[in-house]
Amino acid sequence: MFKGSIVAIVTPFKDGKFDEKAYSKLIEWHIAQGTRGIVPCGTTGEASTLDFEEHYRVIEVAVKTARKRIPIIAGTGANATDEAITLTRKAEELGADGALLVTPYYNKPTQEGLYRHYKAVSKAVNIPIVLYNVPGRTAVNLLPSTVARLMECKNIVAIKEATGDMKQVSEIIRLCGDRITVLSGDDFTVLPLLALGGKGVISVTANIAPKAMAALCNAWERGDIKKARKLHYQLEPLNAAMFIETNPIPVKTAAAMMGKIQEEFRLPLCEMSPANREKLKGVLESAGILKK
Does residue 132 have an active-site annotation? Predict the structure, then answer.
């Protein structure tokens, strides 16, 4: 259902408000570049700084712009189950093709709590659900055994795995088989995850290099391992540069340097340090994304 290069798209702001025009242009650009899905309101989309009405509007604009040409997988995770249900129901109502739900953060639920959380959301909606495991952000790890338990929920169809732990990815695929689609949540691990049986990536780097990330996934799908490996190494410096500072600060800065969006964040996120900005600019120039 969901595969290939899917972008965890940034949310552009202008004068403190959601920049709908820039957002629509970004989505059209991604479709033209070969991106195979859009994730609005994820970590990279600064969902934690959006109020409910903004959250809904960002999803709505994505759905209306995409017009079913590629799927929209709306970020609807929350650290309270009732809130996650509310957000996911609204995404379904707005016409999203799927919902990405990060593990509840800060309150550090047990594996049983995680199981009950996702099961409750699953029962409340019909929309396809993508689990999102990113312990570095949430302080909790959704274990493969819990993912396997959740396979009883028919609309849980995929997981975005951002642990960077290929042993964990392997265990999920061993336990769940074809019942679940595993997507990388860490751009560096795209190629090894595909080799283990994963189907694609929800990518930060695709915000600035969508064609190359799509080409990597497409090359693997058609069995061109040599080209996929070449693109992996080509993208590696960009992948690293996206985390010079906290995501999404570098990727939004890069997109602004490319003229795609305004360089604007919401506190507590702020602009890059001058030294890191120069490092980022150098990587973008080396990659041919910016002219030297």
Answer: yes
